[in-house]
Each structure stands twice: as C-alpha cells, then as structure tokens.
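Hello, quick one for you while I still have it in my head. Could you read through the record and tell me how the tokens relate to the sequence? No rush at all, and the record is pasted right below.
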Amino acid sequence: MHNRISLSRNPFLLLRRPTLAFAAVLALFCGTAMAQLPQGGRPLPDVPIQTSATSSLDLKQYRGKSLVIGLISTVCQHCVTAIQTLRELQTKYGTSGLQVVAAVGDPIPISDIGIFAAQQKANFPVGFLNQPEFIKLAALKPGQRPFVPIVLFVDRKGMVRVQYFGDDQIMKQDVRAAITLTTEHLLKDAAAATASAKK
C-alpha cells in the first residue's frame, strides 16, 4: 500500500495529488489528463532541506538543472521503490543535467536519515523537512491528508512542472515507470529548449 503519514507518527500531514502534467506521458498510464498548473508550472517554494544538525540544502543552487525531488517516509515500501528508481536515474542522467534530491518527513533523528540514505545507497542528497516546510514544498492544502511518495519534477527555471502523490492513479499503477518516464520527458524538454535557444 501507499503510505499515508499518520498524525500518530508524524505531526504534519503530507498530501499527494498530481498538479501539472505532461499529458502524453500520463496518457500511457491512466488515459486521463492530470490537473493542469498555470502555464509553465508553479514556482518551486524557497524551502531549505536540512541535511545535518548544522547544515541545509538550498534548492536554488540547482537552477539550470532538471530537478526531481522525492518527499518520502522511511517506513514506506513504495518510497523505497521511488528512491531506488531515483538512484538509477541519477546514475544514468546525472551527466545530462539531472539532479535528484530527497527529503524525509518522518519525525526521526537526522542521523537516522543518514543511515537510511546509506542503506538505500542514495547517490544524491537526502535530508529532512519539518511539518511547515513539507507542507510548503508540496503545496498542500489545509486538511489534506498526504500520501507518500510525493515526487516533484522541476524544470531548469525552477518551475514545478509535474507533481505526483502516492495515491495518484499513475503512481498506483507503476511507481517506477511513472517516475522514469516523467523524468525522461523533463530532460527531453530541457534539451529541446537548449537546442531552440541555439538557433
């Protein structure tokens, strides 16, 4: 099952639901259009991800790259599948302008997150978000109950182009394929934009 962050385990709620869509990619899975964001997507919120007791990751440093952000729980099997998929994509496309980042929403010690990242052999930054930060980054609405993994696909201009939640139909059907195909579509869009700019 796709995990829902419960109040008994987590003081903040995570939400999950698609935002914008690459319609052609989504049609391969569910045959229905996802909810559209404003033209060009929505701006990625300025939310630092804590990576240790004394340091944090500024997502603005990845402007100019295609960024995929996984919001996860350490006790969610589908989150593990997402992390494994993102690890493979970082290895395959890291030299093509892809950057993956993950953030844990569980209220656990930051040192445990490092252990989790090592166990999953993450080849990208993995940090922590508290409740307000998690809600802001995922653009959650009041009262929405979150399902993880939540995956944000951000273009080189810092715009969230697609966002999936754990209970979205496309994620229920195939987490690995949903993340892989959408990431590849994001990279193709970036390459096309670069080629067009050179003309």
